[in-house]
Design brief:
This protein is of the alpha/beta class and about 600 residues long. The protein folds into 4 domains: about 190 residues, Rossmann fold (3-Layer(aba) Sandwich), CATH 3.40.50; about 110 residues, no CATH class; about 130 residues, 3-Layer(aba) Sandwich (Rossmann fold); about 70 residues. Helix content is about 40%, strand content about 20%. Strands 3, 4, 9, 13, 14, 15 and 16 form a 7-stranded mixed beta sheet that branches. Strands 1, 2, 5, 6, 7 and 8 form a 6-stranded antiparallel beta sheet that branches. About 40% of the residues are buried.
Length: about 600
């Protein structure tokens, strides 16, 4: 069973209908909900949990005024389920739809949920009906046949306790303990050993332990995990079965509430995967909010891979803030939740006709840094790492004018796409997800394809800023060295260059002024041999420039080459911090100002103003 189509409207921040169409690609049936905070990711999972929570009938669901975007309109949810088993088709006979796909009948079940708010009584009236028979309510028993397992972002050890509505409790209820129950109740002191006699429990604990050890580093020992009886007052034994994990450094078991939150998150996924893997869950959709919570990066990546493995056998919904998961999946399986300035959320997926070659190009160059774009209100795309470090720092240097220059605060990402070809593929992807961007392009006079590439970029991105067209100085390093006084540039390089590169710079500067003044050139040679500081070369260079002004451009080109040898985000941050006063108004207007406006902000004489 899987969700084929989902539509939600008027629920919390969903003013208009949002639609999610899950895609099964390369055997993985997964929907990854991403977006900034309060964009509606958790709301999608919450409303599904409300509908399909097996412990609550529809008529007992409680809704507040704040759950309605507009109190004058009903909350509406439409769900189409497909890949129904023969047993489910029999249970819902006369209510399913059938269509021919590849010469075979494919069955689906459509449900409609609505909540009407009565302002007079201040009460909400929920109902769930069949699309084929709108007058027929879905009974509590019928609803329980649809298995939806949800773990929210606030999960803790209670999810792994045998509580009535917990994941562990719901799954544990499917194990047959009839033969063991009498022995357990009569010999409570031997309860743990009695449980070991149940082959289903042995298989279950072994699989949970194996999967958990694959995700997080735990001792490679037998009997790592066990189930025990927690109390002697049990009438229903299953209510008092709890999970324990052996302590890392000793032969001691700990209750799950004594474990770290990260390990508890891992066990939540391990439990579901274990039961699905040993055939105890023939049907069921699994949803988890922020699976990365409380896990260090390596464990996060292992957790994501386990979730992807689970998605081969069960449909999985994931809401996440982690770029690491995004780089592991196909972009078609991303559902981007975007929030406008009024707090209204929309959902965006790649259209069916989005060219596969663009997806392939994006996946080829995707990394965690680029995936950050999906959590952004707007993106500033660059060709190199220096700009990636420069713009956020340059923005921070300008917050005395307007706090919106703090790009992290307003949700703007600066991303190094790594060249014009990659930029084109990235812009197409951003355009289809509705993420606005500004692109900063280097000028390369030696690149024969520069004009063609620039034209193609401008055709798909209306906000392109090309750095000044100066041969050998058309990149950000050249721009900086063309606008900052030479003495400041040299003082900067004195601080950041290694001794070997300082020697190289002395030699390069010597060559730059040799034709203009051989004597001063030789002085630079002697300074290099005597390990003098670059600062001491400043008076010599200024004197040569005074007598031969045209040598200044050669000196600046030489300094730019030294900057290029240390290009990177750290260098960019230092440039933004030290030289912020030397970036022109035109540069700021076409880069930072442009992307801030696209993000939904603009400058105000008071300082901060949101659109």
């Amino acid at each position: 069973m899987r969700i084929k189509d989902l539509r939600i409207s008027n629920f919390r921040n969903f003013k208009d209908e949002i639609r999610i169409v899950p895609q099964k690609i390369n055997g993985h049936d997964i929907v990854v909900l991403i977006g900034e905070n309060n964009a509606g990711k958790s709301n999608v999972l919450s409303i599904l949990h409300m509908l399909f929570n097996p412990e609550r009938s529809i008529r007992t669901l409680e809704f507040e005024e704040t759950d309605f975007y507009d109190l004058n309109k009903p909350i509406k949810v439409e769900v189409v389920l497909e890949d129904l088993s023969e047993e489910l088709c029999a249970e819902f006979i006369g209510l399913v739809d059938a269509e021919q796909v590849g010469g075979q009948n494919k069955y689906s079940l459509s449900l409609k949920f609505s909540v009407i708010y009565d302002k007079n009584t201040r009460e909400a009236e929920p109902s769930l009906v069949y699309a084929r028979q709108p007058d027929r309510l879905v009974s509590f028993g019928e609803k329980k046949l649809i298995s939806f397992f949800f773990q929210d972002a606030m999960r803790d050890y209670r999810a792994i306790k045998p509580n009535k509505g917990s994941l562990f409790g719901r799954i544990l209820n499917q194990i047959n303990l009839t033969e063991q129950e009498e022995a357990i109740l009569s010999k409570l002191n031997e309860a743990s050993d009695s449980l070991k006699n149940n082959p289903e429990i042995v298989e279950f604990t072994n699989v949970v332990a194996d999967i958990t050890k694959q995700i997080i580093d735990l001792p490679r020992i037998d009997d790592l995990l066990r189930l025990t009886i927690a109390t002697s007052t049990a009438v229903d034994v299953k209510k008092y079965i709890q999970m324990q994990l052996k302590h890392h450094a000793a032969d001691k078991y700990l209750d799950v509430d004594q474990l770290g939150l990260g390990l508890q998150s891992v066990l939540t996924v391990s439990i579901f995967r274990a039961f699905a893997g040993i055939g105890k869950l023939r049907e069921g959709i699994f949803a988890i909010d922020e699976p990365e919570s409380h896990l260090y990066p390596h464990a996060q990546r292992k957790m994501y891979r386990e979730i992807l493995q689970l998605s081969r056998t069960r449909q999985v919904f994931v809401a996440t803030h982690s770029p690491s998961l995004i780089e592991l999946i196909n972009p078609r399986q991303i559902c981007l939740m975007r929030k406008d300035a009024q707090g209204t959320s929309t959902s965006v997926q790649l259209p069916q006709n989005f060219p596969e070659e663009f997806v392939s190009s994006y996946e080829k160059h995707l990394d965690v840094g680029k995936a950050d774009a999906f959590f952004s209100k707007a993106v500033l795309l660059t060709e190199g790492p220096t700009e990636q470090g420069l713009f956020p720092e340059l923005g921070l240097s300008l917050i005395y004018k307007d706090s919106n220059y703090d790009l992290d605060r307003i949700g703007v990402s600066v991303i190094n796409a790594g060249g014009k070809t990659n930029i084109k593929a990235f812009i197409r992807l951003l355009n289809n997800f509705g993420i606005p961007c500004v692109t900063v392009i280097d000028y390369d006079s030696k690149d024969k394809n520069h004009e063609k590439e620039l034209k193609e970029i401008k055709e798909i991105c209306p906000n392109v800023y090309e750095l000044p067209r100066k041969p050998n100085m058309g990149d950000i390093e050249g721009y900086v060295c063309d606008n900052v006084p030479i003495d400041k540039l040299i003082m900067f390089l004195e601080e950041v260059l290694s001794p070997e590169r300082k020697e190289d710079l002395f030699s390069d500067l010597k060559g730059a002024i040799k034709k203009a003044d051989v004597e001063k050139s030789n002085e630079l040679r002697d300074m290099r041999k005597n390990n003098k500081s670059l600062e001491e070369a400043i008076p010599i260079l200024n004197e040569v420039i005074t007598h031969t002004s045209e040598v200044e451009s050669k000196i600046r080109e030489t300094l730019a080459n030294s900057f290029r040898k240390i290009k990177g985000r750290t260098t960019g941050r230092l440039i933004g911090e030290k030289f912020s006063d030397h970036f022109t108004e035109k540069f700021i207007e076409n880069t930072l100002d442009a992307v801030i406006q696209l993000a939904g902000y603009w400058d105000d004489i008071e300082g901060e103003q949101e659109r």
